[in-house]
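Chapter summary example.
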Amino acid sequence: MSSSDQQMISPLVSVIMPAHNAELYVLASIHSVLEQTMPSFELLVIDDGSTDSTVQLVESYITRDARVRLIKLWKNTGAPAAPRNIGVREARGRWVAFLDSDDIWHPLKLEVQLGILAQTGARFCSTQIFEFTHDYPLDASNLRLQDFEWVSFLRQLIKFRTPTSSVIVDLQLLLSNPFNEDVKYKAREDLDCWLRCHEVVGKSVKIRAPLTGYRINPGQISGNKLSMVFRHYHVLSKYRFKSGRKLGKYAIIFTATHFILSVYYRKFRKKI
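The structure predicted for these 272 residues follows.
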């Protein structure tokens, strides 16, 4: 068996990409995965009941690269939580990474993250991201790729610091802590999941280099700030520690700190 065949059977990383009517951007997202300098991965595109040409576009890549797999859901689930959970259950990799179907990665992303994970022994790693509106070449030539910080459970509560398209995490951790598929968690299911993961592992590592591009689209739910405030509060108000304790009044406090700091980082620090 060749090394490439072995990589397809037992890839090091499973990349999970939910996609719903993503024909405008999905090819750029797929291309950014296939351009990774770390070749031992599989890409699982979970089509969430698309009615445009998303499926046909993904199938055109399958014929060119056997690392791409397509899972078709015949009915739209209404949120990315269920497709992500399906992808996690189908994953064959030791690690799982996520990429939304309109975001992109720098070619070094997986290689750098795996190196940091091996160096630190962490089970969860994220990167900084930058926002863009059109296809943008990710240039890391002047970035300090080995510069990282630790993200504790408390820091994650104070400000959400792990954008999902930047995350790579231990498969077993995700199997034990799936995304909440309740529609009330839509657009903040990642906050709930990553908090529970941090409660288990204690802290994660975050690379300070922006190796992930987050595409700004008109009309996306994350652009409705008031709605996001209520969704954020809902997740925190419902969060239960493994001891059964709830956050109580701190749900309001940590919702406020998150959005105040988010504005500060975007406006004055120019980073996320």
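To summarize the output: The chain has a mean pLDDT of 91.
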